[in-house]
Write a structure and sequence with these properties.
By secondary structure, the chain is an alpha+beta fold. It folds into three domains: about 1-225, Aminohydrolase, N-terminal nucleophile (Ntn) domain (Glutamine Phosphoribosylpyrophosphate, subunit 1, domain 1); about 240-380 and about 475-545, 3-Layer(aba) Sandwich (Rossmann fold); about 560-624, no CATH class. About 45% of the residues lie in helices and about 15% in strands. The strands form four sheets. The protein has a six-stranded antiparallel beta sheet with strand order 2-3-1-9-8-10. A six-stranded antiparallel beta sheet has the order 4-5-6-7-11-12, with helices on one face. Strands 15-14-13-16-17 form a five-stranded parallel beta sheet, sandwiched between helices. Helix 2 packs across helix 3 and helix 7 (about 275-285) packs parallel to helix 20. The longest helix is centred in the C-terminal third of the chain and has 27 residues, at about 470-500.
């Protein structure tokens, strides 16, 4: 795992610029670094790399790396797990290799197959290739967005990097806030791709590559993998017997987990005791010659503590298990570090325990496997079932009656009833889905920012439109796969793990598994109200059901209570009316109303407050 950066600029630049950029990514690659600058036809191309050595620890893995002609150069972040097979195939075409890693294989795969090589890669990656002969810079990102890749394009300045902080270190970068992105952040708790918080700055979307023509300064983004082509129309498919799907899924996951365990450094796994992580660890235990090292974060609040469940799974699978119990003091210490490492506003509070479990795991291992992706692929979120029920209600309860009920219930002084009522006002299910997910919701969001937010222009809504002919639950999962998973879940894991130079791998998101899940009939994802039905059936082959069959608790800290007590200083310091008023972006009176309601203890608005706290801390650290 590594960090990459680079730029294309008119005129002559030296290595100092690229060195400044890659130094900001030192946490992503403490083991080695490299920089290369090219002067061509009146402009400069710079490539920078920070290396976390995982496979082939020798100097042969040094980047930027060139082919033997010196015409093709690469900087690369990630792991291509099928590189041994590709290496053998390329060897039959007379390619010879200096080292034993995957970077060189990617380089020669591009030389042999051009951009069609991306279809051959199985893994997680963000890469940049400078093709001097073609006069092009190429960026590419893996199919589901496991690894990040930002780029900046303004006039004749083009720069790219694994994280925004490296772009901010580029001398041509301008910190201009994109207000539409800020409004989307307040709704979603992250900035959805392809936008970023800054103007002229973008995330390369998953499954895409970008080509910059150095002679014309023109950028073209092309999609090479599209999840929609694999998602089935349920009414057009007769489901095969359950056993056939179960065997196929077992084979795919075993192959994926085994491939993800390739490493020349110590390896372990995050274990929550839930379905996804337990299945990953169970399969790791099958292939590991030593007990798998597993890591869990616990909470002192029993109602949200999953550590006892993880402990039972670990004991059954005979893992070498480590657990750490989280306290308000831990959160107090880690919040400033969180803002340093999440250099774009990020409001998902589960980043706190993810950051701490990564720090904890790094004391023992350099690579961890994680269970991310199972919920989005196999129907694990409760909101899917709630939307399915809402669709049934909508068939016999006219919109006029629903809106009238909202008009009555919204005045009741009971927080939960008000929220239920608010969900009744929407005519489209996608609006209700957005309501269930949003931090600042409905009228509160409009009052807070004004009438400047166009929900229909968000990637969330565009995916809904694009999937109009699909089964409802397939549509919901595709929205999450396209937005929430890469821009929240995977971003969280990447930044939290790489802050500690820890590589996190996600075997459930191997593209063969993803394509299988997209083509899996809904009945095997949500069966008679049971979520992740097929995954649970598969896990029962490895672990007794009584060890994992329980309600889902999630992986978040109790900020509801802590913001009123141990972490109240965050509310007092960062939500002060004069501070918000001075920023001139948000409605101070609306925010103060929400603060007062939450601090009274009668309402739970921590998720709204947390997004603003994180936004203000981000402004303080990265803009002011």
């Amino acid at each position: 795992m590594c960090g990459i950066c680079g730029f294309v600029a008119s005129g002559s630049r030296d290595k100092i610029q690229i060195s400044t950029m890659h130094q900001s990514l030192g946490h992503r690659g403490p083991d080695d670094w490299g920089a290369q600058v090219f002067h061509v036809n009146g402009h400069t191309v710079g490539l920078g790399h920070r290396r976390l050595s995982i496979i082939d620890l020798s100097e042969a893995g040094h980047q930027p790396m060139a082919d033997e002609s010196g015409d093709i150069w690469i900087v690369y972040n990630g792991e291509v797990y099928n590189y041994p097979d590709l290496r053998k195939e390329l060897a039959t075409k007379a390619y010879s290799f200096r080292g034993n890693g995957d970077t060189e294989v990617i380089l020669y795969a591009y030389r042999e197959w051009g951009l069609a090589c991306l279809d051959k890669f199985s893994g997680m990656f963000a890469l940049a290739i400078y093709d001097r002969t073609a006069g092009k810079l190429i960026l590419a990102r893996d199919r589901v967005g496991i690894k990040p890749l930002y780029y900046y394009h303004r006039n004749r300045d083009f720069a790219f990097a694994s994280e925004l902080k490296a772009l901010m270190a580029y001398e041509g970068f301008r910190k201009e806030i994109d207000l539409d992105s800020l409004y989307q952040y307040l709704s979603f708790q992250y900035v959805p791709a392809p936008r970023s918080i800054f103007a002229n700055t973008y995330k390369l979307e998953p499954g895409c590559y970008l080509t910059l023509d150095l002679s014309t300064n023109e950028v073209e983004v092309t999609r090479y993998w599209d999840p929609f082509q694999f998602a089935i129309f349920d009414d057009e498919l007769k489901a095969k017997p359950e056993k056939e799907y179960l065997i196929q899924l077992d084979q795919l996951l075993q192959r994926s987990v085994q491939g993800h365990m390739i490493s020349d450094v110590p390896l372990g796994a995050f274990l929550s005791g839930g379905i996804d992580s337990s299945l990953v660890v169970a399969m790791m235990a099958r292939y590991s010659p030593q007990p798998v090292k597993t890591f869990t974060i616990g909470f002192h609040e029993a109602y949200r503590d999953e550590a006892p469940f993880a402990r039972k799974i670990a004991a059954y699978l005979h893992t070498d298990h480590y657990e750490y119990y989280l306290s308000p003091r831990d959160v107090f210490d880690v919040i400033p570090k969180l803002v340093d490492n999440f250099d774009e506003p990020f409001g998902d509070n589960s980043a706190l325990p993810t950051f701490l479990v990564s720090q904890f795991a790094r004391q023992e291992v350099t690579v961890v496997l994680s269970g991310d992706g199972g919920d989005e692929l196999f129907g694990g979120y409760g909101r899917y079932g709630r939307l399915a029920k809402a669709a049934q209600i909508d068939r016999f309860l006219p919109a006029g009656i629903r809106r009238a009920s909202f008009g009555l219930l919204k005045w009741l002084p009971v927080d939960n009833l008000q929220r239920i009522a608010a969900g009744m006002q929407y005519d489209e299910l996608v609006e209700l889905f957005h309501y269930l997910l949003a931090m600042w919701k409905g009228d509160d969001h409009k009052r807070f920012i004004g009438s400047r937010y166009d929900f229909e222009e968000t990637p969330f809504y565009r995916t809904w439109r694009k999937t109009a002919s699909y089964h409802l639950l397939t549509r919901l999962m595709l929205i999450d796969l396209n937005t929430y998973l890469p821009d929240d879940g995977l971003t969280k894991v990447d930044r939290a793990s790489m802050a500690h130079s820890l590589e996190a791998r996600v075997p459930l998101l191997d593209h063969h598994v993803v394509e299988f899940a997209l083509n899996l009939p809904i009945v095997y994802k949500l069966k008679r109200g049971e979520q992740k039905y097929l995954l649970k059936r598969l896990l029962s082959k490895y672990v007794p059901p009584e060890l994992y069959m329980r309600p889902k608790k999630g992986f978040s800290v109790p900020l509801n209570e802590w913001l009123r007590n141990e972490l109240r200083y965050l509310v007092d310091d960062y939500l002060k009316p004069e501070r918000i008023r001075r920023r001139g972006l948000l409605n101070v009176d609306v925010l103060n109303e929400i603060v007062q309601k939450h601090m009274s203890g009668r309402y739970n608005y921590f998720y709204m407050l947390w997004t603003v706290i994180m936004l203000e801390m981000w402004f303080e650290r990265w803009v002011d």
